[in-house]
Amino acid sequence: MDQKMRDKKAYNLSFSYLIKYGKSKGVTKKLINKYLHFPEHTQRPDNVAGIYQQLLSSAQNANMKAGVIGKAIGGVENLGKVLFRFNPLKVLHKYGAEWERLLDDIEAQLAPHGKVRRKNNSIWPKYCQTILSATPFMSKFSSARDFYGWIDSLYHDEKTRVALPILISNEIDGIGFALACDFLKELGYADFGKPDIHIKQIFKGLELCERRANDYHVHQAILRIAKNVRKTPYNVDKLFWLIGSGNFYDDPHIGKKGKIGSLKKGFITYARRHLV
What we know:
There is one protein chain. By secondary structure, the protein is mostly helical. The chain folds into two domains: 3-38 and 192-274, no CATH class; 48-186. The protein has helices spanning 3-22, 29-36, 48-59, 65-68, 88-95, 99-110, 123-138, 144-155, 163-171, 177-186, 197-205, 215-229, 233-245, 264-274. Helix 3 crosses helix 10. The model has no long low-confidence stretch (mean pLDDT 94).
């Protein structure tokens, strides 16, 4: 089976498997399609503060960070009370690179739930370092128009598009390639997918990428599949992510508050039998 046929078959198998094993919990073809189409009503931020806030929201979309950070303070938007309504220049002037001072103020003003660990490798210290390391980068842009102009200058050329997450991940501590892709995707750039843990495990398990593939190579596999099935990378990303996470976050009536449980392990076993 050549790569194009394998990509098409893997995509179709994921769709049918999600319906088959999610049906008893309320999953339908119509519901899945709702998640696969980029939400047209989504409006990207129209100022630098909003872009900075979205960057910090994407920065906590990894591992346990969302539960430790966003959930602990009632949402990332509440950081605006400490971050001068997400004004990167003011944050830079007040804190510089002193993450300890920032964390002191977050604890004093937002009183996060749970224990705030302060070891360098703990979640809160690393997140505060991300907040502060992003300020020099975001302060380069005088307006949202200036920022999107820079993005668009690279995004609209297929040969330079992938440079965007590479540049962003090198500018900001704690924002790796995958989270940079997530940031761009959430700003409305649908030609990016997020090579997260679910997608990496599925792709490697189905030999849609090499077993030693890094985030960049998995992202390239998302783009390849999207081209072969004539869908957007956003569509491909979301379909395999739904298999892996089982999280229909906009539909709390599905399963248990929108969660049907991961179908990843069963799907990999099932799909491998059909991809020989």
